[in-house]
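Suppose a classmate hands you a notebook page containing two proteins, each written out with its sequence and a corresponding row of structure tokens. How would you begin to make sense of it? This section walks through that situation. The first entry is reproduced here exactly as it would appear on such a page.
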Amino acid sequence: MAESKGKPAKAANRTPPKSPGDPAREKTAKRLSLESEGGGEGGAAAPSELSALEEAFRRFAVHGDTRASGREMHGKNWSKLCKDCHVIDGKNVTVTDVDIVFSKIKGKSCRTITFEQFQEALEELARKRFKDKSSEDAVREVHRLIEGRSPVISGVTKTVSSPTVSRLTDTTRFTGSHKERFDLSGKGKGKAGRVDLVDQSGYVPGYKHAGTYDQKVQGGK
């Protein structure tokens, strides 16, 4: 009995019971807090549509590299972009100018440039490419050369003409057994050109005058 009296009594729960309207209030407060957070951060988090210039940048950035993410561009693809989009005109802007600008814009320990650095590089080349225009107009003209463009793929299936190859593939120069494999037009005879086929059409194998009997009989009459 003494032990039971010595134990402190449990504190009564003084939290008032929630009223029936509390769940609705909590949902409203939660929705308002989410909307306020979305107004401050939602604009940055929401995916924005790519501009025509950035789309071209990503197309050239992934060209020839299946592991590329499209967010960075190597010097080789940068040079191809400037060449395919005619930023290089051979007069005001040369391949050397393009390489110098790339080395200037990229970081010392980096081998690639980002889209922001890409825009800076274009500003450098725009002043060289369009000397007779203002800075803003020159940049705008360079962007027009690049927007919506894709890497040019040409010359992949082009055959190389070689005297040695022509000599080896010219059937008129074949001799011996190789010559027998082709007809006068150069078309292969197939099995007949590789294997000696025996004519079994007559009573005597290899008879060369098959089909001439009727002609001889009619001629005799």
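The notebook's second entry, a different protein, reads as follows.
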Amino acid sequence: MLKVLAVFGTRPEAIKMAPLVKELEKHPAEINCKVAVTAQHREMLDQVLSLFEISPAYDLDIMRHGQNLFDITSRALAGLEKVLTREKPDLVLVHGDTTTTFVAALASFYLQIPVGHVEAGLRTRNKFSPFPEEANRHLTGVLADLNFAPTATARQNLLEEGVPPEKIFVTGNTVIDALLATVRPGYRFNDEMLDGIDYDSRRVLLVTTHRRENLGEPMRDIYRALREVVECYPDVEVVFPVHKNPAVRNVVEEELAGLARVHMVEPMDYQPFANLIDRSYLVLSDSGGIQEEAPSRGKPVLVLRNTTERPEAVEAGTVRLVGTDRLKVAGETRRLLDNKDFYNKMANAVNPYGDGRASTRIVQAIKFHFGISAARPDEFCP
């Protein structure tokens, strides 16, 4: 019986790890899978656990008001030492680039427990962009024993860093598994405003911003660009789930409060958010995961950043890097609203991130690595 401990702490990690946990649970004769959460994010994590019906064996509940990276790192490291010492798993699974991810890999290393890194190999080559995620991902990669790269580009990044090829498996991204399991035809929103939008006759722009490097004037420029677009296009509606960070909320209120057809809402649970992606016309975001999610539903994405660790989407044509300059953000948004051929080219480009079988491939790779299965899994190829 192989003992696997999946560790995560934020909503994005939970979304991407949930389908993998559910897939691991389908193999009870061979794999004993448990979940430990740090709750680096509390409320936003809990709703994903509820949606996917995941009950953690361990909940460190480390989130505190006003926490910083030092707080998260120290509390998670101390808590995970106790969990790992008690469980003694054969493999610890971590995801992506959060502080929880790096700390779980570090704690496992200290106890000489193998680490499997889901969504391994993404790189911008700028350790401060995104911050601290790029460094977290690099450091986790140094400690990982198994690397589940979502794409061939991610695998090449790992190979260039000296990772042995037999330790890399190209699987696709588990976020596509999660999204395909969550979007529902005819879905009804609990929010009266969201349910009242005529998605057939209105063009809905879904907007999210939260990056530390965009706080202040960069975000202000983004919101001013949105104002210009809304004022010029009567059929455009903006739905903006506003991040809880006061540094984000204050600027949003100053720039967009009271503007007709701009709907500022609280951060959304994953199920309505996934279905809102499906109903939207266009996405503007500085998020990482949405660069993978939206194209799987044929939605172009304007990335409000100067760098991306997901260049495959840029190369495929499903996303465009536009930064935060007001004129460029407004100009690229106008282009997609005005030029139907350009819009269709982005909307119909092949999503390079997954086919809904990433979790299956990862489980097959784990079984292969530990000698439970003799067959190396087929690689994802878009």
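A careful reader of the second entry would note: The radius of gyration is 20 Å.
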